[in-house]
Amino acid sequence: MSYFKQFTRGVMFAMLAAGQVFMGCAAATSDTAHTELRYMIAGIRVDPPAPNHNTVYVEFQDQTGQGGDFEDTVYHEIVNGVTNRGYIAVKDHSKADYVMWATVRIFTEAGTEAGDKALAGLGAIAGGAAAAGAVSAGGGRGATPFIAGVGTAGLAYAAVTVLNKKNAYQMVIDLQLAKKVEGGVQTDNASSGQSGLQQGTVAVGEAGGSSHQQSKAQHYTENKVHFEMEQRILAIADGTRLTMDVARAALIPKLISGLKSSLPRAN
Q1: Burial per residue of 135-145, b for 16 or more beta-carbon CB atoms within 10 angstroms, e otherwise
Q2: Which of 51, 126, 199, 225 could tie 216 with a disulfide, CB 3.0–4.6 Å?
Q3: Rounded to two decimals, what is the model's pTM?
Q4: Which DSSP category does 140 fall into?
């Protein structure tokens, strides 16, 4: 058999093999992308509300400037979610029994220099979470590059590698929950020189009282109506040839579910 015929058959075989693989490596969609939530700060446990003390004020802010209806969509879905859990949404946070503030701090591709820098900029806690493996490996930077002169099977493999590339996007959300306390709350803030997230809080007027060590590096004592708790959430979406828009769409349901579930059922 001539070299030309061997080459032609090799090309046809490689194309057929590649075609079979291409059929099974479609780009991830919002329905097929893998999503999960990880907690950078230990989870907050909030006691269920007493009868007739189930009002809640909800605030959701996007500091990443994603635009569109992202912020409004998530806000309204959170309100609907906590309402379905037995709460009554109110517009005045000073009169609410519970207050929920959720803020999107970053939304970047994971495992990139820019993404790692954004995580590190959030402080030691976020940086530690990133080092724990915020990115799913799968092709990515380790993909085999195209090399001139590679054989036909190699060409097919290189193309398959590109089509099978897996990447991930990360979204960090800061969540603050507050519960109204009879008699008010006195917060004593002192700089600790750690991650910028340390706070000692004492509930006043409750039997036995309670205390939590959180994070905030400031110097003042303040009397408030609500007992405040903090949490930082890392939301991750990954998949084959995942785009930022698809990742955002995939993360919205997971994000809403996690935020609304931070409040215990009131019904």
Answers
A1: bbeebeeeeee
A2: 199
A3: 0.65
A4: G
